[in-house]
Amino acid sequence: MYFPGLEGVVVKETKICYIDLENSKIYYRGYDLEELARLSTFEEVTYLLWLGRLPGRRELEEFKARLAAHRLPPPHIATLAKSAPPSAEPIDVLRTAVSAMAWGEDLSDKSPEAELQRGLKITAAMPYVVAAFDRARRGQEPVHPAEAGSHAEYFLWALRGERPSPREARAMDVMLIIYAEHSMNNSAFTAVTVASTLADMYAAVTAAVASLKGPLHGGANVDAAKMIEEIGDVKKVEGWVDEQLAKGRRIPGFGHRLYKKGPDPRLRVLRELAKGLAAERGDFRWVEIAERLEDYVTAKLAAKGIYPNTDLYAAVIFRYLGLPVDVNLPTFAISRVAGWVAHVLEYRQANRLIRPTEKYVGPLGLRYTPIDARG
Ligand code: ACO
């Protein structure tokens, strides 16, 4: 049997995430994602994804304190983030930093507790790395706002150097919840594939960040941001889309391997979030472009099973939050690391080396010709 793109292939049993295509719902550990986005926090959702249940008050406080204690990464990581060339892509800096976090640590203990602790250290340090690099390339010193409350507030504060408004911090928090997990996507599969060799959590997450980079996966949130920027005016949406399609190009922020019969369920939350930020700023330009894109592209391409995905509105929300366009992508990683770690921990409970096979379609029986006789 041959499954191009592994479409429809089941690689593991899971209790982490369920996507109910029929009813347009996503569940993390049995909880409706829309309810989590409304009522929960990224820290609580991360605890839920990793440990399988909602924490009690004290457990959550302890978990938040553990994360906060690791926000400032070891000196060699802080130096790496600061000294990467300004022309580097932030996602590449983050990938290298995650890999370098393994340095100097005894990695022989592969127990769930040890791997969870590594996942926690990576999760905690990612915002600082991304923010420190972004500031350094603009000639600014890194900021470590120890008094920041949530992970989301810390990230925005470290990035901008000043405290975000509660509404902005909450918008980032919701984005981190929404992006945190999405079943057996390419980067989660990559993490699990690496973990199945019994390589450590740093190796698995480094590989997952690499997978996220591609424009068919997480990189689409950068392309979507460039698209809305390039369009710039709601009146230009139709012309821009027609031109792209005429050139045979794909529209970023549209299409999904799973959602062929309707839009991504997460869009409901993100559309509202984007509108709320637009209203707060009195600037509806970007949300209007996204809504027009949504209507126009869907009308053109729904027959092919193409609907908007999360990256369309993520681009709008990140724009309202003032993120540099290329920081959209590592922001996705800052969130999705929660899902990667959960999948690695779950897979290891019944680990089996991932080693698919392939169908050979090349020639056989060729005779070796010495190089002098090849012309
Ligand atoms: N714009 C225009 N046409 C599209 C788009 C799009 N965004 N996406 C798919 N199509 C077309 C394809 O060209 C193809 O047309 P054809 O049958 O005439 O050749 C048809 O729709 C089916 O496309 P597939 O490639 O088979 O769909 P697949 O399920 O493999 O791809 C993918 C899903 C990769 C996400 C694709 O829709 C895409 O490239 N989208 C743009 C990038 C993007 O937004 N990625 C983010 C995905 S979500 C995430 O990872 C966070």
From TrEMBL:
SUPFAM superfamilies: Citrate synthase (SSF48256)
The keyword Transferase appears for this protein: yes
Listed InterPro entries: 2-MeCitrate/Citrate_synth_II, Citrate_synth-like_lrg_a-sub, Citrate_synth-like_sm_a-sub, Citrate_synthase, Citrate_synthase_bac-typ, Citrate_synthase_sf
Gene3D superfamilies in the cross-refs: Citrate Synthase, domain 1, Cytochrome P450-Terp, domain 2
Annotated active site: 256, 311
Enzymatic class: transferase
GO annotation, cellular component aspect: cytoplasm
GO terms of biological process kind: carbohydrate metabolic process; tricarboxylic acid cycle
Domain of life: Archaea
Catalysed reaction equations from the record: oxaloacetate + acetyl-CoA + H2O = citrate + CoA + H(+)
GO molecular-function term, one example from the UniProt record: citrate synthase activity
Pathway: Carbohydrate metabolism; tricarboxylic acid cycle
Xref: Pfam families: Citrate_synt
Keywords: Acyltransferase, Transferase, Tricarboxylic acid cycle
EC number: 2.3.3.16
Family designation: Belongs to the citrate synthase family.
Protein's name according to its UniProt entry: Citrate synthase
Organism: Pyrobaculum oguniense (strain DSM 13380 / JCM 10595 / TE7)
